[in-house]
Amino acid sequence: MINNRIQNTFKNLKKNRRKALITFVTGCDPNYETSKKILNQLVKQGADLLEIGMPFSDPMADGPSIQKSSLRALSEGANIKKIIKLVSDFRKKNKITPIILMGYLNPILSFGINNFFKSAKKAGTDGLIVVDVPPEEDDEISGKAKENEIDLIKLATPTTDTARLKKIIKTCSGFLYYVAIKGITGAKSGDPKLIKKSISDIKKNTNIPVVVGFGIKNPSDAKAIANTGCDGVVVGSALVEIIEKSLKSKKPKHKIASKIGSVVKRIKMII
Fold first, then answer.
1. 93: domain CATH number?
2. Which of 50, 145, 183, 201 has a 20 to 30 Å separation from 93 between CA atoms?
């Protein structure tokens, strides 16, 4: 058993017949201090797990909203060192909520794989998603994750066949992230009927929790996905877009966290 926080969260939610609400925001967007406030507000309003994006200049799996959020964070001097500090600062007040870092391999390699995992673990990171490393090439990442007791969370898509799914599950821990649509984040919503069948098929091959993300834009989308048999829903682009719109309208940055929190609260109430 690698990670208690993630496993305990899903265990407690299942016991109470609730779905996990996993929220995604890019670390240090729009800046470091506001990002800290956003993370705290997310938990206050009902987020069960926090997914923090590590900014990268070429986020190929992300749609326009999250790409822009990465650029905003990078313009504020964001890097892996700052993201890890963000986790460490959050952990000073919160020892319970699981934190998953999500990003791409290149920045991790630049930081140094060994240094990354040791630093992330020390800060209080629970899980990692590296979107551009296929299961055939993840031996080093998988080994370091296990060595540092960080769950390596894998992605499955609508095009993942049974043979490939078994490869993915082999080194996946924490939970499996099912990508509801073909394409990038923030695209149109997936078909709940098709997602329900996919979740059913996945659960025939593993007991690990399965969460669904990509294309969940509002509370009604989240509710529909929550009823597909999954164990949780991931909401990201919809939250990141609030930051973008708030900045465009020149609203005070200190109000961004509360605005995001109000959306999260509405979603949590109905899933």
1. 3.20.20.70
2. 145
Angle formed by the axes of helices 80-91 and 113-123, nearest 10°: 20
Going by C-alpha positions, the residue among 176, 137, 174 that lies closest to residue 157 is: 176
Q: Which of 48, 62, 126, 221 is catalytic?
A: 62
Q: What are 266's two structure tokens?
A: 């509405």
Model pTM score: 0.94
Which amino acid is present at 109? L
76 among known catalytic residues:
no
Annotated catalytic residue, options 29, 51, 126, 138: 51
Q: Total domain count for the chain?
A: 1
Task: Give the structural domain span for 146.
Answer: 4-270
* Element of type H or E holding 154: strand 154-156
Q: 47 — phi, psi (to 5°)? A: -65, 130
Active site residue 62: yes
Is the pLDDT assigned to residue 183 strictly greater than 70? no
Q: Where are the alpha helices (DSSP H) in 18-161?
A: 32-44, 64-75, 80-91, 105-111, 113-123, 139-147
What DSSP assignment string belongs to 166-180?
HHHHHT--S-EEEE-
The single-letter code of the amino acid at 216 is I
Closest C-alpha among 219, 216, 218 to residue 234: 216
In sequence order, what are the beta bridge partners of 101? 52, 128
**pLDDT averaged over the chain?**
93
Distance of alpha carbon 13 from alpha carbon 19, whole angstroms: 6
